[in-house]
Amino acid sequence: MKIAISSGHGEKVRGASGYIDEVEEARRVVERVADDLHEAGVLVNVFHDNTSTTQDQNLHTIVDWHNSQDRDYDISVHFNAYQTTDKPMGTECCYLTQEDLAARVAGAISTSGDLINRGPKVRSDLYFLNSTDMPAILIETCFVDSKADVNAYQVNFGMICGAIAGVFTGESEAAFPGPQEKLFRTVGKCSWFGGPQDEGVDADEGLAFIYEYDQAPHLFLKEQPPNTSGLARRLDPAVPYVACRWDYSKTPKEMLADKDNFALVRAGKWRIFAWPADWGPHETTDRVADLSPGLLETLGLDTDDEVEVIYPFRLK
After folding, report:
1. Sheet holding 287-291, edge to edge
2. Domains of the chain, first to last
3. Integer angstrom CA distances of residue 121 from 16, 27, 136, 312
4. How far is residue 61 from each of residues 66, 73, 165, 279, measured CA to CA in Å?
């Protein structure tokens, strides 16, 4: 499969603006979706218009690029706007001929992003859909002027992009179950975990970690701090990750064998394996999640701030 994906509007021909900027966010979505597709073995070409100075030139530049590509699908990523509001507005996907594909993409974004599903929208007035040669959709990810939408989008950015990619890789329905099927959810205080300054973990606790360095080098510091052997102090504090609690009466191999308790957690573009059935507030601190310093900074959180933890993945 080959996909051509572009962001709507351009550097000099701006789109909608509200709590977030359409052009900037569309580019973020395109790049992350492309990363997820590449990781799944899909051939992807990406385009952002940095040269057009008029709307007409912008539309022709984007469509001309798509029609110059060897691909099976055309995707254009946009963000909607209506009027400034605190209320949720939702996501939708526009199509001319691809109703089923648009419905699946809108549904995947809605479920993964906790956004209202406005569904597939047939549009015969959009130049992109009328002029591209291959099956095409135009995604309206959420409303930039809806505070509720923007909050949901920012919190669930990685999962939304993974959901879009999952529609094309066949992973969407399995990886993004409906809200009533979420595998684990809790709300409570968080704390920080990891990096050379973390001295709160026993030196041998890393024995329960399922990754070796060569399996996930991005999670580790390039050099182990001197006089330390514990997992926490070997991890890169800048990388977004969630440190998961487990049942200490079980060995990792026993827990890996318990498929009903096995889940895949995504933090941005990184994947972390965990056992959510054994989780819960810490027996002495009541904290429900340990986040890397980098993830805390990204989310604007400090230790003991309240977080919502949702892990919707079930591996089968």
Report:
1. 242-243, 287-291, 184-192, 306-311
2. 2-175 (3.40.630.40), 179-311 (no CATH)
3. 19, 22, 13, 27
4. 9, 18, 24, 51
pTM of the predicted structure, to 2 decimals: 0.62
268: left (phi over 0), alpha (psi -120 to 50) or beta: left
Other CB atoms within 10 Å distance of the CB of residue 247: 14
- The pLDDT of 120-141, averaged and rounded, is 97
* pLDDT(239) > 70: yes
- CA dihedral (316, 272, 296, 149) positive or negative: negative
Does the pLDDT at position 281 exceed 90?
A: no
* Calculated CA dihedral for residues 232, 236, 237, 240, nearest 10 degrees: -110
CA 107 to CA 276: how far, in whole Å?
25
> What angle do helix axes 157-169 and 147-155 make, rounded to 10 degrees?
70
- Which has the closest alpha carbon to 72: 130, 128, 172, 2? 2
